[in-house]
Amino acid sequence: MNAPDRYERFVVPEGVKKVSYERDTKIMNAATFTVEREDHTIGNIVRMQLHRDDTVLFAGYKLPHPLQYKILLRIQTTSQSSPMQAYNQAINDLDKELDHLKNQFEGELAKYTRDY
Amino acid sequence: MDGVSYQRFPRIKIREVKHDYMKFELRDTDSSIANALRRIMIAEVPTIAIDLVEIEVNSSVLNDEFISHRLGLIPLTSERAMSMRFSRDCDACDGDGQCEYCSVEFYLRVKCLSDQTLDVTSKDLLSSDHTVVPVDYSDGLDNATNKGIIIVKLRRGQELRLRAIARKGIGKDHAKWSPAATVTFMYEPEIYINEDMMESLTLEEKQELVDSSPTKVFAIDPENKQVIVVDPEAYTYDDEVLKKAEAMGKPGLVEIHAKEDSFIFTVETTGAVKASQLVLNAIEVLKQKLDAVRLSDDTVEADDQFGELGAHMRGG
Ligand SMILES: [Zn+2]
C-alpha cells in the first residue's frame, strides 16, 4: 500500500539536480559528483574512461545502497586538470566512442545484409 | 582548454543475423562498455506492452488480475517505441489511452458458443495501431497450427470482453517491457600450447588431456598426432585442462588468457524489436543517458564562484 512507485528508480524527482558537485575541502583537485537515478551502467563506464586520463590520479564510484537510486563518483586530478574538466572530458570521449561504435555497427550490418 | 582525447575506436564484426537473434564481435574497447550495452539491452531499451486493462465481462475461470497480468506479458511489435513518449511525461493527454503519442488501444471480445473449448489467444487482440500488434511467432507454420499465445480457455457460455491500453516502458520498470530474451557476452580466450612440452607426451597422455576438457576445445590432428585447438570459443573458463596439465606434472603445458578488449556478444530478443535494432537502440539509449549526466551550467557557475576561495586554498 505504501510501496514507492516503480518509476522512483529512474525518474529524477522534481527539484532534485541530476548531477551535483562537491569539492573536497581537504584534498586539492578532488571532488565528489552525485549522479541521481543512475547505477553501474553509467558509474562504471565513466570511471573506466577516467582511468585512461593521465591527469586523473583517482577515479572511483559507488552505489551507496540498492534502495538509494544514485551513485557517487569521486575524482582527483593533478594540477594540470580539474575534476570537472576530467569529468566533462570522459563524457565527451565516451560519447564520441559510441558515435563511432554506431557507425561501425551500421556499416557492418549493411555489409552483412548485402553479402548474405 | 580541452585536454587530449582518450577516445577509443571500437570495431565490430558481425557473425550471424536473424530476426530475433544475432552474434557479433566487439573489439578495442573494455568490459565496462560491453557490460553497459548488455545491461541497457536488458533493462533500458523501451518497448510497448499492455499496462492498463478495463474488464467489461469476464466469466472465464481466470480472475481479472490474472488475465491482466497475462496480457501485459504478451510481446508487442515495438519499432515505434523509441520515438514514442512515456505516458508519465506526455502533456498531450490525460492518460485515457486515446493519445497517439503515448498509448495504443486494444480490444478483445470473445465468447464461446460451442461445446468445443475455445482458446483465447494474442491473435484475438485487436489493435488500434497496425504497427503495434502481438508478435507473430508463426514462422512457416500454417494458420491451423499457429494460434498465437494462449491467454485463457473458455467453455460453452463463457465470455471475455475487455479494453487494454499499451504503453511505452523499460525493463527496469517491469520485466514485461524488456525486449531481451538473453543478452550475453564472453571474453575471447587466447589459448597457447607449449609445443616442446607437448612433444614429451605420449599419444595416450595427449588424448587424456584433450578429453579432460568438458567442452570440445582441443583435438588430436589425425595427420601428425599433435594437440590442436579446434574451437577456442567452446572454452568455458572451467580450468579443467590446466588442472589436468598440472596433475600430469606439466604446468604451463597449456596457457589460457581472456583477452580483455575482445567480446563475443549473443543477442536474442522476444521479437518486439529486431536483434540488430536492439543493439542500435542500446547505443542510442546509452548516448542519451550520457547526455543527461552532463554538468549543468549552474553547477559550473556555482563552482566558479567557489573557485576564488579554492584559489586561496591552493595558495594562489
Ligand atoms: Zn499521451
Automatic annotation (TrEMBL), chain A:
Keyword Coiled coil attached: yes
Instruction: Read off the PROSITE patterns from this record.
Output: RNA_POL_L_13KD
Which keywords does this chain's UniProt record carry?
Coiled coil, DNA-directed RNA polymerase, Nucleus, Transcription
Superkingdom of the source?
A: Eukaryota
Q: Where in the cell is it found?
A: Nucleus
Q: Which GO terms describe its molecular function?
A: DNA binding; DNA-directed RNA polymerase activity; protein dimerization activity
Q: What is its main location?
A: nucleus
Tell me which residues make up the DNA-directed RNA polymerase RBP11-like dimerisation domain. 30-104
Q: Which GO terms describe its biological process?
A: transcription by RNA polymerase II
Q: Which GO terms describe its cellular component?
A: RNA polymerase II, core complex
What are the coiled-coil residue ranges?
A: 84-111
Q: Which family does it belong to?
A: Belongs to the archaeal Rpo11/eukaryotic RPB11/RPC19 RNA polymerase subunit family.
Record protein name field: DNA-directed RNA polymerase II subunit RPB11
- Native organism is Capsicum annuum
Starting at the broadest rank, the lineage of the source organism is: Eukaryota, Viridiplantae, Streptophyta, Embryophyta, Tracheophyta
TrEMBL record, chain B:
Recorded GO cellular component terms are:
RNA polymerase II, core complex; RNA polymerase IV complex; RNA polymerase V complex
Q: Which UniProt keywords are listed?
A: Acetylation, DNA-directed RNA polymerase, Nucleus, Transcription
Among the GO molecular function terms of this UniProt record, one is: DNA-directed RNA polymerase activity
Cross-referenced SMART domains: RPOLD (SM00662)
Q: Where is the signal peptide?
A: none
Spell out the InterPro entries in the cross-references.
DNA-dir_RNA_pol_30-40kDasu_CS (IPR001514), DNA-dir_RNA_pol_insert (IPR011262), DNA-dir_RNA_pol_RpoA/D/Rpb3 (IPR011263), RBP11-like (IPR036603), RNAP_Rpo3/Rpb3/RPAC1 (IPR022842), RNApol_insert_sf (IPR036643), Rpo3/RPB3_RNA_Pol_subunit (IPR050518)
Question: Where in the cell is the protein located?
Answer: Nucleus
Limits of the DNA-directed RNA polymerase RpoA/D/Rpb3-type domain: 21-296
The yes or no answer to whether the keyword Nucleus is present is: yes
- SUPFAM superfamilies referenced in this protein's UniProt entry, alphabetically: Insert subdomain of RNA polymerase alpha subunit, RBP11-like subunits of RNA polymerase
First-listed, main subcellular location of the protein, grouped into a coarse class: nucleus
Family of this protein = Belongs to the archaeal Rpo3/eukaryotic RPB3 RNA polymerase subunit family.
Name of the protein described by the UniProt record: DNA-directed RNA polymerases II, IV and V subunit 3
In its UniProt entry, the species of origin is given as Capsicum annuum (Capsicum pepper)
